[in-house]
Amino acid sequence: MRAPRVTLDQWRTLQAVVDQGGFAQAAEVLHRSQSSVSYTVARMQEQLGVPLLRIDGRKAVLTEAGDVLLRRSRQLVKQASQLEDLAYNMDQGWEAEVRLVVDAAYPTERLINALAAFIPQSRGCRVRLREEVLSGVEEVLLEGTADLAISSLDLVGYLGHELHAVEFVAVAHPQHSLHQMQRQLTFEDLQQQLQVVIRDSGRSKPRDVGWLGAEQRWTVSSLSTAARFVSSGLGFAWLPRHLIGRELAEGSLLPLPLEKGGNKHPRFTLYSHKDKTLGPASQILVELLRKFDALPATAAGTAPPTEH
């Protein structure tokens, strides 16, 4: 790749001439002589091979080519400034990236609110978000490839910030045979039916949390797939209420009339890497995640359960 012939300082000089309306005004703002500013712009035009400015009366006006190049240069100068700011922030201990792993059953709305509030405070710090199911969250944290983790499991050896519980509801399609019994259901009734569960994404010790030992079990890898199965009449499942609001409202899913256990409320916890001190960006994100976790989850969107 050919090295740039025009420097960032030259682009900044051109911007000042246009923004201030002339060479003299730009020279005053840049604390340089007018002849130096004029030479810089003239040299730019020579290096680029296209005219950037024309003089209209006493005012410097962009040519068509100059207008296009100036717009692009503003992005370039801004990105260069952001890069320098990031380097400074890193020198002050500010992270370049925060790695967050979250159980797929945790309400996405709460994450969106927290991350949206984090952006203006991030100083260019990126967030790498990863979704796992059950022990998959724990494995990522233990491997050291996550700084923060939100899990519904109690992780041995970790102290975390307790978050709110998430409601799981036992549901099936209204035409499912369980609803046709027209009575309260027992666990024995469920054991005779097909249960849909989400595969634990952990590799070393995957769990069957929530499986009743039904004669038939279909295991799927995503919440969206499980939701479509159950709302299409294939089996039953415990699904997070906030993820099946649309199906409940439309009537494609109905809560099962269980004698007990129709609703489960696993509590989630926010953990951090125990062998790594959190940097300032991670600490801010922790506080925002805790703050927006306190908001009620709205029942919107599609998607079903995990093996909780």
How is the secondary structure organized here?
Blueprint: H1 8-20, H2 23-30, H3 34-48, E1 53-56, E2 59-62, H4 64-91, E3 97-103, H5 108-118, E4 126-132, H6 135-143, E5 148-151, E6 161-165, E7 168-172, H7 177-180, H8 187-191, E8 194-198, E9 216-220, H9 223-231, E10 236-240, H10 245-250, E11 254-255, E12 263-264, E13 267-272, H11 280-293
Parallel strand pairs: 3-4, 3-5, 8-9
Antiparallel strand pairs: 1-2, 5-13, 6-13, 7-10, 7-11, 7-12
Helix pairs in contact: 1-2, 1-3, 1-4, 2-3, 5-11
Structure description:
The chain has helices at residues 8-20, 23-30, 34-48, 64-91, 108-118, 135-143, 177-180, 187-191, 223-231, 245-250, 280-293, and strands at residues 53-56, 59-62, 97-103, 126-132, 148-151, 161-165, 168-172, 194-198, 216-220, 236-240, 254-255, 263-264, 267-272. With 308 residues, it is an alpha/beta fold. It folds into two domains: 8-91, Winged helix-like DNA-binding domain superfamily/Winged helix DNA-binding domain (Arc Repressor Mutant, subunit A, Orthogonal Bundle); 95-308, D-Maltodextrin-Binding Protein, domain 2 (3-Layer(aba) Sandwich), CATH 3.40.190. The protein has a five-stranded mixed β-sheet. Strand 1 and strand 2 (59-62) form a beta hairpin.
